[in-house]
Amino acid sequence: IIAHERFENSEFTVRIYPGALAEGTIYCPISARKTTTAAEAIERVIERLHLDRTRCYVLAEVKEFGGEEWILNPCDCPVQRMMLWPRVALEHRALSGAEDYRFLLRQKNLDGSIHYGGSLQMWLQVTEERRRMQERGLLPQPDSQGDHADLCHLPELNERSLLDNLRSRFRQEKIYTYVGSILIVINPFKFLPIYNPKYVKMYDNHTLGDLEPHIYAVADVAYHAMLQRESNQCIVISGESGSGKTQSTNFLIHHLTALSQKGFASGVEQIILGAGPVLEAFGNAKTAHNNNSSRFGKFIQVNYQESGTVRGAYVEKYLLEKSRLVYQEHNERNYHVFYYLLAGASEEERKAFHLKKPEEYHYLSQDCFTVEGEDLKHDFERLQLAMEMVGFLPATRRQIFSLLSAILHLGNIRYKRKTYRDDSIDICNPEELPVVSELLEVKEEMLFEALTTRKTVTVGEKLIVPYKLSEANTVRDSMAKSLYSALFDWIVFRINHALLNLKDLVETTKILSIGVLDIFGFEDYENNSFEQFCINFANERLQHYFNQHIFKLEQEEYRSEGISWHNIEYIDNTGCINLISKKPTAMFHLLDEECNFPQATNQTLLDKFKRQHEGNSYIEFPAVMEPAFIIRHYAGKVKYGVKDFREKNTDHMRPDIVALLKSSKSAFICGLMGIDPSATFRWAVLRSYFRALVAFREAGKRHTQKKTETAGPSADLCGTPHLIFLTLQTAQTVVCCLHNFLPTCLKKKKKDLVAQTSRLTPVFLCFVNRRNKNYKSKPVLPKHLLNVKSLKYLSNLTLHDRITKSLLHLHKKKKPPSISAQFQASLNKLMETLGQSEPYFVKCIRSNAEKLPLRFNDNLVLRQLRYTGMLETVRIRQSGYNIKYSFKDFVHHFCVLLPEGTSATREGIQQCLDQLDLEPDGYQVGKTMVFLREAERQRLQALLHTEVLRRIITLQRRFRAQLERKQFVRMREASVCIQVQAWRMWLYRRCTAALVIQTAWRCHQAREAYLRLYAAYRCLALSSFPTGQENMSPPCSPDLMLDRSLRDLKENKEPSPKVKRRRSVKITSVALEPVEEHNGHIFKSTQYSIPTYCEFCSSLIWMMDRACVLCRYACHRKCCQKTTTKCSKKFDPELSSRQFGVEVSRLTNDERTVPLVVEKLINYIEMHGLYTEGIYRKSGSTNKIKELKQGLDTDVDSMNLDDYNIHVIASVFKQWLRDLPNPLMTFELYEEFIRAMGLQDKKEMIRGVYSVIDQLSRTHLNTLERLIFHLVRIALQEETNRMSANALAIVFAPCILRCPDTIDPLQSVQDIGKTTACVEVIICEQMNKYRVRLKDISSLEFAENKAKCRLTLIRRSMKPVLIAVRFMSIARTMVCIRTPWIASSNRHPVVMLLWC
């Protein structure tokens, strides 16, 4: 019933699309319950968008985008209608798509009709385009609708205005808000689509406040501030548990790595991204407030080079909550990794690790098992991938999972008292012991003794005392917690080793860094213990650090600089910090003292607290007799129970357990127990060496025995087990390295070890030669291998953090430090690191306690705003000066705006600022610094940018004028030189031209006179001769006969029928004959070489008659207009799917320059057959070829080429080329290509071929370009597909350069060599150009990167944006140079690159 009421009262987010009613708004999100009516929803939209209330509005529901709209009645409930939508429509609300569900706001006219106002789809496209232009800065940002992105801009400053502004933005799904440079994040408990790569690019290199607030903006500002100021930065994320700190950290890390990868990715970015899921799996758990709560603190420091590339990283962890491993409160779970392992392990792994269901484990079965919306199998795969990215080998991952299973089985061990003895215990379920001993690789007897008895050494004797029942459970849980804590420390150590840059071990160059602090949030549970006490103390320190930077140090600096300022009061928590950590009466110190007394109890600890701090205002004690105390933190009062305070502060593992684990056969378990990682590594190397030495000896003995027993060489070492062998060189290197870290007693035996290694040389070489003939001396080793230097370096970094290792401390004289002491040391080092960096603060706020999506709880948010001092923060940011420059830096940065010779003094700067257009209260000049507010700094930056651009334009104008002047002078000098030297030649040519003109004119006059005489003579002759001789031609002059013969020879290109050889089947066309068209046929006069019958009247056709040039339809001339049969190959617009035997021009248009069938076939061959041997040499199945050809001829788009062999597809492509009525290189230009190939000089031949190609039509040229580029790609893979340029030319020359039917067959056979050579020349020439162009592109890219680096240095001082833009445009112009015959801009981009 409670769950049902909670569901009924829960709020949902409804998106209403106003369309043209609210320009610039895509949708308006409102909060509504199931009972909210459409009238109430419309009222909220009107209030949110400030619409005209005098008009009438209705709400419409639309399904399947662009479909029918359903008008909702005022009493209808939109949420109930929305819950009936498909789940996909609720999860993916795209801006456009085939299926979509929306609520639209429509205006109702006076007559009751609905005013639609245009297409919703078109309006969405326009609105989305406007939004993109606003994001890019091309359009001004829209005015805020009643809310402010920066709380400093609030006109009225109080708690209510702060809360109203945040609530208004939150309901619009704007979860980020600025307070100056501080970012407030309200956790929506829902993923919002504002973190894709588009937003990464959007916020790149933008000033804080230019765009909508975002976590990416803070990361970008910190990154560029680090590069410009060359100082370390840190981002401090704080907030309650469940406020979204971990998710904000992940977004920050993702953006920082993305910024680094703009130039050259070093590979460390992937390891950083992979480390996050690994640490979350092992260190996060579900709590009452948060489903993914961090149960440890971490500080991620990303180190950069001066160029901005990631150099390395470092992860530091703080106080893992070990008690959660053995006990969880109500509605909480254990660490995520256990549930991932049990749900995602394979059957083989479940059997090897003895895995069970979560309900069968004591450590997991205490409360809940599942989380809503969780996919454990997917999370386990994600964890495996992340561990692989970090560098964990499969064997290492198996060891980790084996240890996790051992911890779970260890928790299942239960105890009972023995019946015959009261002081001894026994194990209830002994079947768990073999499983634990197998997984830990320890002896079962030793494990039983360690879990049931303890050994005490007195003077002269050793006592074995059995545990009591409560002590045994404590020892068992302590062993499990220490194992898990040691494993977590080892994982963090290995991640740091993978993130370590080996250059840091030898180089001392300056390293810039950005640190991101994600520490546990403030916690107040029903039962608070030692862990919550430490966690809240850490948050007290962070709040104190925040107050120091925002309030105390800021106001002290104002006073020291002597500027006018009124102090702002704030909550100072120094007293609470001193209560907990200031010696000698600090609570931590008193706790350590009580831990040293054996007879101390919880009550004595509480009494000591009372005696020392009875009158302190920050601590209270309950009135009733309760073992607890109350601390007044900055976030409120928290009650802590003192139970288990002492035990958790000294949670050491007994020496018996440590000795047991160190006796494990697993090197992994032994390594976890080691105190010094470098010492553990040295002994591991030594142990591996001696094992290899023994293995060599045994192998040598077996080799010698088998050599004497069998003569066959194939039997050598057949039975040798798979051992890990070292080469001789490696073995000798190991021996030499052992001298550097072996104890003194072992160094004396170094010579003996070297001698033994040398004696094993022939045995090892024999083994290697017989085992593998292709043996290489340098095997491929995995990445991130350990070495002594890196281990020492990392150990020095973590000297302050020895929590787990101190638990295993076995020194008798010196006790290990307590947990609280080590935690304070870690916090002190953290504060020291933060103090050396410039901080950015991210304040995370929990929106509601029920973890409901987009639910805003006013009281909860207001409480968090109060204890974080947000009102005071806004006040000091609003009235303070958060931008500070020293006099020298100010003059250096704004020197362009200042008058020349301005000195870096207070008076000079004050005078210059007074002359600029700035608000008088927006700046102040102190004794040594200039103080600016953010608005004034932005105004100065805008003025600086404008002035720099003006000077750049002036320089460019003068430089261009100088260039033009030089060009003009050169041209003038050249003109004078030409006029002086060529005047006589010009005069001579002019006289000669005059003589030629005169001669031609006189010849023309004489010719006209001759023709007049000839006409008169013809008239006389016709009148004097009889009628029967009319056909006799008059005598002609020799010149006239010669002209007529030449004219006849030019007009008749057909060779003599006696010389011409007739083809057996081919039909030849006669040129210069009239063309007739009927029913799609194109009839031309045709000469038939075999007896043929008319297809209309069935009569015999003589040698010369008509035929269709498309389908070869033969008929008489008289039957052409009578035939009723349509041409089978005529292109019909209604049957536009026909592809074969059709002119190329009919298959292309302005949008598609290459036929669709060609593009589809070539793309498929390039995708799947580029490396197929003999791709165009071999033929496919004839039936499949016919089937595919018919399918493509019918419908190209619906054909699936995956159903056919690659050779079938290649054959169909060649068939398409052969079926073209006019080949790609055309019949008209065939003679020109043959004539060009007859040239002797190779350069002249190539130039001639390309000049003929320029004469091709645009459609033929585009298709030919695509084909040649495809053949070039095929030829470049000659080593694989065995298709050289010559082989491709042999195949494709008959397809694209066919001889016309009018040419003599014998001549066409003789031209085969020339056509093949022509195609081969084109392919080879384009291959050469392709290689040269790639080389030029590489050179240009290198020059571009070099210029970018230089321009980056210039931007740091002057930021000349226009120069960078112009340089990029010039560089791209150089790449895009084209040849004359590739001038079209609509061609394939890759082909354009090739033909360049």
TrEMBL record:
Compartments (UniProt record): Cell projection, Growth cone; Cytoplasm; Membrane; Synapse
Myosin motor domain residues: 146-945
Where is ATP annotated to bind? G239, E240, S241, G242, S243, G244, K245, T246
At the top level of its lineage, which domain of life is listed?
A: Eukaryota
Q: Where is the signal peptide?
A: none
Q: In this protein, which residues make up the domain named Ras-associating?
A: 10-110
Q: What is this protein called?
A: Myosin IXA
Membrane topology of this protein:
Single-pass membrane protein
* Family under the similarity heading: Belongs to the TRAFAC class myosin-kinesin ATPase superfamily. Myosin family.
Cite the InterPro entries for this sequence. C1-like_sf (IPR046349), IQ_motif_EF-hand-BS (IPR000048), Kinesin_motor_dom_sf (IPR036961), Myo9 (IPR046987), Myosin_head_motor_dom-like (IPR001609), MYSc_Myo9 (IPR036023), P-loop_NTPase (IPR027417), PKC_DAG/PE (IPR002219)
BP GO terms, sorted: establishment of epithelial cell apical/basal polarity; intracellular signal transduction
Keywords on record: Actin-binding, ATP-binding, Cell projection, Coiled coil, Cytoplasm, GTPase activation, Membrane, Metal-binding, Motor protein, Myosin, Nucleotide-binding, Repeat, Synapse, Transmembrane, Transmembrane helix, Zinc, Zinc-finger
PROSITE patterns assigned? IQ (PS50096), MYOSIN_MOTOR (PS51456), RA (PS50200), RHOGAP (PS50238), ZF_DAG_PE_1 (PS00479), ZF_DAG_PE_2 (PS50081)
- Report domain Rho-GAP positions: 1142-1330
- TM ranges: none
**Functional note:** Myosins are actin-based motor molecules with ATPase activity. Unconventional myosins serve in intracellular movements. Regulates Rho by stimulating it's GTPase activity in neurons. Required for the regulation of neurite branching and motor neuron axon guidance.
Tell me which GO cellular component terms the UniProt record holds.
actin filament; axonal growth cone; cytoplasm; membrane; myosin complex; synapse
Q: Name one GO molecular function term.
A: actin filament binding
Return the annotated region ranges for Actin-binding.
827-849
Source organism: Sparus aurata (Gilthead sea bream)
List residues of the Phorbol-ester/DAG-type domain.
Answer: 1080-1127
Q: Which CDD domains match?
A: MYSc_Myo9
